[in-house]
Amino acid sequence: MKLLHLKITLVVVLCSLLYSCADLTTSVKDTALGSEEINNPEAGLRTLAPAYLSMNSILNRHEWMNNLQGVSSIEQIVPFRGGTDWFDGGRFFEMHQHNWTPQHITLINVWGNTTQGIGRASLSQKTISDGTGDASLIAEARGLKAFYNYWLLDLWNIAFDSKPEDVGTTNLSTPYRGGEAVDYILSELEAIESSLPTIQEVGEIRFNRSAAIGLKARLLLNKAVYSDRYAENFDFSNDMQSVIDNTTQLINSGTFSLENENYFFLFGKENEGHPEMIFSFNQEVETGGQHRLAYFHSSRDRFASLIFRKTGSDGGAVTQDFYDMWEGWRDDPRFFHRFLPDGGTIADEDFRWNRGIQIGQQYGIIPKAGTSIDWQRDEDGNLLILPLVDISRSGKPMVYTREVGLTEDNDHITGARSLKWDMDRNAPGSASSVNIPLIRLGEIYLMRAEAYARLGNWANALNDVNTVRTARKARALNANELNNMDQLFREIMFEMYHEHWSRTYMIRFGKWEDSWRDKNSTDKNKRVFPIPQFVIDAAQSEPGYIEQNPGY
């Protein structure tokens, strides 16, 4: 009997509505667990693997969560490059201008994989319960459901209680909205926390006890928003002490510490097993790990590896508004870190991209004429670091500009670029094994700082912000430089940009209806995305089960 080859119908979000439904009925790693294997100690882990894997495209593709959280916000823009490249059916224009509809492909894709993740986690929970009954693995499966449900809540204002006993039946999952969804997810996290494995036992790449505490803090910090999406002002007062309590538990645990050598090590191969990481998505070349977050902002003629032809795409850029946010603060090491000189030579072992926000003339390695990865060198064999040229498209020197727009200032070299993420220099093609942080200590400190600030305790907020700044080797702020929410928002963006959270921050800080270049929408309904239309259409067979969000 193939216990994992179970049809999931209407368990999470009406499986018949999902283009990924076929994935939900496939066996773990394409191999069903037969009854003779179900009590194998490794069976639980094998069933959890696909639940984690549903995060893959959500996190590592530039046009999935990056589009929903980064391109929709003041952080990123994707021009119609030269009138020839990166229009992509309007998916980036619509997101940037807040003109999306329920048919938007990014919404369909992210909804599909997120609900798929819930379905797979429910299936894993049932399989483990029916087999070994390992309490920690059952808790881990429920934790993954909670994490996927957090994304659903944040993006679509909905969460689904997918019960393991309903797997393989026609029973519907229970949908929750707004504050009820927050309470449901919090109740799940509270129920499993003590049963979850510790990070010392399983590492940061699995949902662990500390991850549950961090996710609780994030939920509570946003609860006022999730409970009253379209409010003129959010009332945060009821939940901030709980945010402080949960974040303090992690900060004082002695388990974690801030990166204090180079901020950008958190977004490269150095982040694996890093003491700042609380929960990360584990990328592996063998399971489809990608470097698209790094490649999307870089250029076709900027090379990242000495042994493989790994280049960028000239797709995205940071908005000029986000670039201007750093005015007066560009000495902050989180803005830019130099690994390469502007000209000269370096040894092979010292080669890696400069990181952070790139502007002006760019420098790098250039292949010899007629070769692919045979690099120009000096007479001693060292790599020549030369001014780069946009050979592939415009033929112009690769001089990134502040000015960038969707249809004006939209050449292939316009716009400052975020190279926050490193490419995996030792992986072929677009493959990468650079893990993607989901909860880390830097964010935890800033959550606590924000909670203190919303309770009026700016002294404690300043202390937490300066703890992070000092670790990053940025100068400490004085009380006049951090005494209002605009200044705190700036500090959070400096630390957390290009990590799939900017939209969430902008809504919480009341900046979502602001204008920035090529975005003038003030529609509050855009604080929540529309549920994909095909889901709404098919749900008509169950009146009242899934209703479209207001304004769509």
Write the layout of secondary structure elements.
Elements: H1 21-24, H2 43-53, H3 55-60, H4 65-71, E1 76-77, H5 91-97, H6 105-130, H7 135-156, E2 158-161, E3 174-177, H8 178-192, H9 199-202, H10 209-227, H11 240-251, E4 277-281, H12 292-295, E5 317-318, H13 320-325, E6 336-337, E7 344-346, E8 355-358, E9 360-361, E10 363-364, E11 383-387, E12 399-400, E13 417-419, E14 436-440, H14 441-454, H15 458-471, H16 485-496, H17 502-508, H18 533-538
Antiparallel strand pairs: 1-5, 2-3, 4-14, 6-8, 7-11, 8-13, 9-12, 10-11
Helix pairs in contact: 2-6, 2-7, 6-7, 7-8, 7-10, 8-10, 10-11, 10-14, 11-14, 14-15, 14-16
Protein model, in words:
The chain is mainly α. The chain is 36% helix and 8% strand. The chain has 18 helices and 14 strands. The strands form six sheets. It has a three-stranded antiparallel β-sheet.
The main sheet orders its strands as 6-8-13
Helix/strand-derived class? mainly alpha
Helical amount among residues, as a percent range? 25-40%
Instruction: Tell me the number of helical segments per DSSP (H or I, 4 or more residues long).
Output: 18
Content of β-strand: 5-15%
How many strands in all? Answer: 14
The general outline is: globular
If you compute it from the alpha carbons, what radius of gyration comes out, rounded to the nearest whole angstrom?
Answer: 23 Å
Largest sheet: 3 strands, antiparallel
Distance between the termini: 45 Å
